[in-house]
Design a protein that fits this description.
Elements: E1 5-10, H1 21-39, E2 43-50, H2 55-63, H3 68-85, E3 92-95, H4 99-114, E4 118-128, E5 133-134, E6 140-143, E7 152-153, E8 169-173, E9 181-190, H5 196-204, H6 211-222, E10 229-230, E11 232-234, E12 248-250, H7 252-271, H8 275-279, E13 284-291, H9 295-309, E14 316-320, E15 323-325, E16 328-329, H10 340-346, H11 349-359, E17 367-369, H12 371-400, H13 412-428, H14 432-453, H15 455-460, H16 465-486, H17 491-501, H18 532-547, H19 562-566, H20 575-580, E18 583-593, E19 601-606, E20 612-617, H21 625-628, E21 632-636, E22 642-644, E23 647-649, E24 652-653, E25 655-659, E26 662-665
Parallel strand pairs: 1-2, 1-13, 2-3, 13-14, 15-17
Antiparallel strand pairs: 4-5, 4-9, 6-7, 6-8, 9-10, 11-12, 15-16, 18-19, 18-21, 19-20, 21-24, 22-23, 25-26
Helix pairs in contact: 2-3, 4-7, 4-9, 5-6, 5-9, 10-18, 11-14, 12-14, 12-16, 13-14, 13-16, 14-16, 16-17
This protein binds one RNA strand of 77 nucleotides through helix 6, helix 12, helix 14 and helix 15.
RNA sequence: GGGGCUGUAGCUCAGUUGGUUAGAGCUGGGGACUCAUAAUCCCUAGGUCGCGGGUUCAAGUCCUGCCAGCCCUACCA
């Protein structure tokens, strides 16, 4: 077999938050693929790094009163600890804030300049004179220029209008509360349109992308002229200063993917390898694993940059969907926003690796972690079928050892060898669910063999010792085959096997020949059943963690300042101003979905007696209609009715939260009656 | 509104280039065994393959229309 040289990466996690189960969908699937390739005898290096630059890091470091370097160093430690906990085995873990990365950024930059692809344009942007920084749209709030609503986001208003932050009336910086001023800033743009022909071809030919991704790009980007990409940010910015444009920094998404190469270089230096061997060599494969949210950075900009700078293009960009838990988006309040660290306290990481593998397909689909399904699958498959096979012959085998010749097993082992090719093909094409399915079919065939042979009867008859040895030899070799096939997913199980039989598993091909004439050590329990209670504890702790997040342990009521930062307090008003708003207690008497609307529920609210109001509320993602009926809510009763596509909305239901599924309706303590005014 | 993906047994999914009575695992029901982590084994139930057209000797599989779900995008709050 020809040995392939394969370089694999996962997306670089951003250094402003801990690793959670959603991230792990990616790192686990990449790790499985890399381990599989190595087991098959290929050269495969798996590289990753922290993504460390940008405004968010700068602001956070500022808020925490420490340097950016300090922040990213501690974040990198915690990321690497979490990854190690899940058995993610990087050949090297770097940082985008490295000397190597800086140098490579210059190299890419020069190439883009030389290719005549960099354009300079002055744009007018809001600037916070107090924080001394330019403000991205999301850091500005103010009054909507179209409808006059106060405290609206920098790029769009609750009234539905979109605009530029420069059009906002009375804008405020969310960083300092200061009034931003308009300031000219020169930005540098990469003219991607120049590479259009190349990109169109690269995207649609050569199987670099899943077909649905190629279609998506074709429909969304390639139909129109490719817009210039703004790759510079004026000072202050945490990142690398652009050498030929002092006072300007490369935008974080410029230097992040270059981090793949910089990390390779660090690895090369440590291992006496040449970078060109990996990144300028047509015999090397480059595989990026990423989530669907960062598709266009990796499928448009990145290939464009690589092409221009003369590096290898990705052989394949593998794109996956998001994680849902029990069919819903991860939610902090429901305790399903589970940090890697929290999971590790309660549950064996091998189980998550197995479960993800059993659900992953080559398509860009969201993966659902149903907690009941999770425990059931782990317990029936891994414990009941796989490990049980070894467990049930463990004691006998310790006495008999393995036979010199492989006994007649009715063709089971040979079947397993045949299946091995299919399983390998499934791993290769990232169809892990298929691989797992085939492996479990083998396990399903193995247990009846032991059952029908009845080794426990042989054990009672000294004359049948050879038969007993034969049964053990078969059972252990079938188990061994399973373990080898599962090794990319659950390497720890292979290690346990190796200790037991004193045989290291280093190659996929070991599955083709049975282990014979070997001593068998004492069998130790390999996996415990997954307890529902542990899952419950994990959820409970995740809920608490959310409430206590980043709080001072000495104080029980230290809440994050994030909400206030996101949305600062509005300008002062008089009591008369407030009294204009007529808030009323109302009872939800009916609630239903609006078929054509994505976010709206249609509510009928009763103000007591025969007074009712029809209100459309953007809470579909957060509430089920049936859960609302009967509840008391607080409504704005004198709001001018608004005609919507779906009907007339005669008021507004009050709620807090950023939106989407994070919406929390205001309630009222017991005793309040519909129609009563809120004073 | 535009684009994409999906829709097969209660649940999770297989169904190869269209070819005989549509499959598996789990769950459910009945039985057996005791080597094994209340594990295992045997038997069994259960499907108008989202719906309607069309192509074909033959369609879960191809074409088309519709419906539903999810995602992206736009609009709407």
């Amino acid at each position: 077999m020809m040995q392939r040289n394969i370089l694999v990466t996962s997306a670089l996690p951003y250094a402003n938050g801990p690793i959670h189960l959603g991230h792990l969908v990616e790192y686990i699937q990449t790790d499985i693929w890399a381990r599989f390739q190595r087991l098959r005898g290929h050269r495969c290096i798996y590289l990753c790094a922290d993504d460390t630059h940008g405004t968010a890091i700068m602001i956070r470091a500022r808020n925490e009163g420490r340097s950016e370097e300090d922040l990213i160093a501690s974040m990198s430690d915690s990321h690497q600890r979490d990854f190690a906990g899940f058995g993610i085995e990087f050949d090297h873990y770097g940082s985008t804030n490295s000397a190597e990365n800086k140098e490579l950024c210059s190299l890419f930059w020069t190439a883009l300049r030389n290719a005549g692809m960099v354009a300079e344009r002055t744009i007018e942007q809001l600037y916070d004179p107090q924080a001394e920084t330019f403000l991205a749209d999301r850091f500005v709030r103010g009054t909507c220029p179209k409808c006059g609503l106060t405290d609206q986001a920098g790029d769009n208003c609750n009234c539905g209008h979109t605009y530029s932050p420069t059009e906002l009336i009375n804008p405020k910086s969310t960083l300092s509360g200061a009034t931003p001023v308009l300031k000219n800033a020169t930005h540098l743009f990469v003219e991607l349109e120049q590479l259009r022909q190349f990109l169109v071809q690269w995207i649609q030919e050569g199987d670099h992308l899943q077909s649905e991704v190629a279609n998506y790009l074709k429909g969304h980007f390639l139909n129109d002229e490719l817009r210039d990409w703004d790759v510079s940010r004026p000072t202050p910015y945490f990142g690398f200063e652009i050498p030929d444009a002092p006072g300007n920094y490369w935008y974080v998404w410029f230097d992040a993917p270059i981090g793949y190469i910089a990390t390779t270089q660090q690895w090369c230096e440590a291992n006496n390898e040449s970078l060109d061997q990996w990144w300028k060599n047509e015999n090397t494969e480059i595989h990026h694993f990423i989530g669907k949210d960062i598709t266009y950075f990796h499928t448009l900009f990145w290939p464009g940059m690589l092409k221009t700078a003369g590096f290898n293009l990705p052989t394949k960009v593998h794109i996956h969907g998001f994680l849902t838990i029990n069919g819903e988006k991860m939610s902090k309040s429901k305790g399903t926003f589970i940090a890697a660290e929290t999971y590790l306290k309660y549950i064996n990481p091998a189980y998550l690796r197995y479960f993800y593998a059993s659900k992953l397909t080559p398509r860009v689909e969201d993966l659902d972690l149903g907690l009941d399904e999770f425990s059931q699958k782990v317990n029936t498959d891994l414990v009941g079928k796989v490990v049980n096979l070894a467990s049930r012959v463990g004691k006998f085998a310790q006495e008999t050892g393995l036979a010199e010749q492989y006994p007649d097993d009715g063709g089971l082992f040979t079947e397993g060898v045949k299946a091995g090719d299919e399983i390998a093909a499934a791993y290769e094409s990232k169809d892990y669910s298929k691989a797992i399915r085939r492996i479990m079919e083998l396990a399903d065939a193995a247990n009846p063999f032991v059952e029908h042979a009845k080794p426990w009867e042989m054990k009672k008859d000294p004359d049948r010792k050879d038969e007993l040895q034969a049964v053990c030899t078969v059972a252990i070799n079938l188990f061994r085959q399973l373990i080898i096939y599962l090794k990319p997913v659950i390497p720890t199980l292979a290690e346990q096997y190796s200790q037991w039989l004193n045989e290291p598993i280093t190659s996929w091909d070991q599955s083709k020949n049975p282990l014979l004439a070997a001593k068998v050590g004492k069998f130790n329990r390999m996996l415990d059943r997954l307890q529902i209670e542990d899952l419950e504890k994990m959820i409970e702790e995740s809920k608490n963690l959310d409430q206590a997040i980043e709080s001072d342990p000495d104080s029980s009521y230290v809440d994050s300042d994030q909400p206030l930062n996101d949305e600062p307090i509005s300008e002062e008003i008089s009591i008369e101003d407030f009294s204009k708003v007529d808030l009323r207690v109302a009872r939800v008497i009916s609630a239903e979905h609006v078929p054509e609307a994505n976010k709206l529920l249609k509510l009928q609210l009763s103000l007591g007696g025969s007074e009712t109001r029809q209100v459309f509320a953007g809470i579909k993602a957060a509430y089920q209609p049936e859960d609302l009926v009967g509840r008391l809510v607080i409504m704005v009763a004198n709001l001018k009715p608004r005609k919507m596509r779906f009907g007339l909305s005669e008021g507004m239901v009050t709620a807090a939260g950023p939106g989407g599924s994070e919406v929390f309706i205001l309630g009222v303590d017991e005793g309040a009656l519909p129609g009563q005014r809120v004073h």
